[in-house]
Amino acid sequence: MTTTTNATKVPAAVVDSPISARARISGRIVSGVIAVLLTVDAVSKIAGVESVKQASAELGIPAHLTPVIGIVLLACLGLYLFSATAVLGAVLLTGYFGGAVLINMINEKPLFSTVLSGVYAGIIVWVGLYLRDSRVRALVPFGTR
């Protein structure tokens, strides 16, 4: 009787190139900073802070959806901070930021200071993940020899 196994192959780049302690710590710091900022944003939406309600109304977002948006942001952030689901969290946060870019474009906000702020946040999320996660490094091999 012959048995076959379907072993999952791990890319050599993941196995052969461990992340330095300095890069891992830097990644955690970058991820931590963006996480704090996004947590404050999410909590202010959930808590119904008046200035957040007004800003959302000016963008055309109904007041009853603001807490839902905050909960979605917290869920995506939780996935991003847990290492096993960090890539999924980063992808979902990227989609969230894309929605922010769209809303600001529709409302004709200033390009570099407002519209692209979602792009800037997305870059920070991915840089933090790249520095701390070998799976992302294997996909995007900057600086390989």
Automatic annotation (TrEMBL):
<feature type="transmembrane region" description="Helical">
    <location>
        <begin position="61"/>
        <end position="82"/>
    </location>
</feature>
<keyword id="KW-0472">Membrane</keyword>
<keyword id="KW-0812">Transmembrane</keyword>
<dbReference type="GO" id="GO:0016020">
    <property type="term" value="C:membrane"/>
</dbReference>
<feature type="transmembrane region" description="Helical">
    <location>
        <begin position="87"/>
        <end position="106"/>
    </location>
</feature>
<feature type="transmembrane region" description="Helical">
    <location>
        <begin position="29"/>
        <end position="49"/>
    </location>
</feature>
<dbReference type="InterPro" id="IPR032808">
    <property type="entry name" value="DoxX"/>
</dbReference>
<dbReference type="Pfam" id="PF13564">
    <property type="entry name" value="DoxX_2"/>
</dbReference>
<feature type="transmembrane region" description="Helical">
    <location>
        <begin position="112"/>
        <end position="131"/>
    </location>
</feature>
<protein>
    <submittedName>
        <fullName>DoxX family protein</fullName>
    </submittedName>
</protein>
<keyword id="KW-1133">Transmembrane helix</keyword>
